[in-house]
Amino acid sequence: MRWDRLADTPATDTPATPAAPADAALFGTDAVTTRTFDTPEFRGITFHEIRARSIVNRVPGASRMPFEWTVNPYRGCTHACVYCFARRSHAYLDLDTGVGFDSQIVVKVNAPELLRARLASRSWQGAHIAMGTNVDCYQRAEGRYRLMPGIIEALRDRANPFSILTKGTLILRDQELIRQAAEVTEVGVSVSVGFTDRELWRTVEPGTPSPERRLDVVRAFAGHGIDCGVLMAPVVPFLGDRPEQLRDTVRAIAGAGASSVTPLVLHLRPGAREWFFTWLRRHHPGLVGRYERLYGAGAYAPTWYQRRITRQVHELAAEFGIGPAHRGAARRIPLPDHHAGPPAAEQLTLL
Q1: Which terminus, N or C, of the chain has the lesser number of Cβ atoms within 10 Å?
Q2: Do 79 and 45 form a contact (C-beta atoms < 8 A)?
Q3: What contacts 266, CB < 8 A, 6 or more positions away?
Q4: Following CA atoms 130, 151, 192, 290 in sequence, which dihedral angle do they give, to the nearest 10 degrees?
C-alpha cells in the first residue's frame, strides 16, 4: 500500500487532484498499525490505524460545497454504498475503489487531539467545520474507535460551529455532547435518507442502518428539541424517482419531525461510476443504456432532470408541512433562554 503518497482529499465537486508527493504525506509508513477483529460486525474488514499529521482540511475553492473546512476521521466506509463519491480516494493507497473501499478502513486514531491543537492555534479563526462530507464519521468503525466524542468535545470547548451529516444511528450515543455544544455555538445535524424502498436500500446501501432506523434518529433529535434536517440523497433515477416513491419518502421524513428536506440526485464521479455500473449490470441490466444516456455528459444528471426532482420534492415538502433547507443557512439548534443575546453570525452547513 502506498502510504507515503497519501494526501487528504476533502469533499469537492471538482475533479480529483493527483496524489501528493511523499513529503506532503499525512503520516509515515512507521505510523501504520493494521488490525482485524473476529467479531461478526467487523468480519472481513481490515483497519489501518494511523497517526495523522493533520485533520482539518480546506475544501478547494472551486468546490460547490457551502463550507470551507472539513474533518474526516476515517477513509473508506463500511456502509458500502455503491454510489459513494469518495471511492476514488482509495486509489491513492493502491486499493481498489470497490471492495477495498468497503473493507479497508483507515482510522486516524489521533484525530481528537489533532483537532484540539488546531482549534487552539493562533491561526485558526473559528470557521465552521463540516463532518460526514467525505465518508461517514458514524460508520461501524466509530463504535469501536470512539473518535467522535473527543472531536465534538474539542469543538464544544472552543465554541466552534460545526455540522454533521450521517447515515449512522450511532450519532445518538453523542446526543448529549451535541446538545452541550449547541448551548455555546451553532450546530447543524442532518441525516441522509434518499428513499424508503427497502429492496433498493438492501442492494445500494448494504452496510447502513435501514431508512426507518435513520428516521428514528431524526425523531429522537426532534423529541429533544434539536432541529434535524434530512438530505434526501441520493434520488436514484429509474429506481427511486417514481412519484409515489418520492411521496412515500417525503411523507416519512415529515412524519419523523425533520426540520427540512433537501433532495440531491445521484451523481457518479470517477471511481464511484465504475462500481455503480458494475452493480447496475448485475442487478438491473435493462437500465444500463438509460443510465449511459442520462450520465453521458459527466458525473451529474442533466439539469432538467435535477430541477424536476427538486420541484417535486419541494412541492411534497410543502404539502406535508416541511420546507427545503436554504443553501448556506445555518440550522440553529434553539438555545436555552439564559443564553439569549445578539444573533450569531451566519454559518455555512452541509446543505
Answers
A1: N
A2: no
A3: 83, 234, 235, 236, 237, 301
A4: 60
- CA angle at residue 101 from 100 to 104, to 5 degrees? 65
Residues shown for the chain? 351
* Nearest residue to 345 (alpha-carbon basis) of 127, 95, 72: 127
Q: Which of 308, 295, 286, 297 is nearest to 266 (CA)?
A: 295
Rounded Cα distance between 162 and 69, Å, is 10
Alpha helices for the chain (secondary structure H):
99-103, 111-120, 141-145, 148-157, 175-182, 198-204, 211-223, 243-255, 272-283, 288-294, 303-319
Q: What's the pTM value of the predicted model, to 2 decimals?
A: 0.84
pLDDT tens digits, the chain, 351 residues: what are they?
A: 554 444 444 444 333 333 333 333 444 545 678 888 878 888 899 999 999 999 999 987 655 667 789 999 999 999 999 999 999 888 777 778 888 999 999 999 999 999 999 999 999 999 999 999 889 999 999 999 999 999 999 999 999 999 999 999 999 999 999 999 999 999 999 999 999 999 999 999 999 999 999 999 999 999 988 999 999 999 999 999 999 999 999 999 999 999 999 999 999 999 899 999 999 999 999 999 999 999 998 999 999 999 999 999 999 999 999 966 544 333 333 333 333 333 332 222 333
Instruction: Count H helices and E strands in the chain, helices first.
Output: 11, 11
Cα distance between residue 26 and residue 110, in whole Å = 12
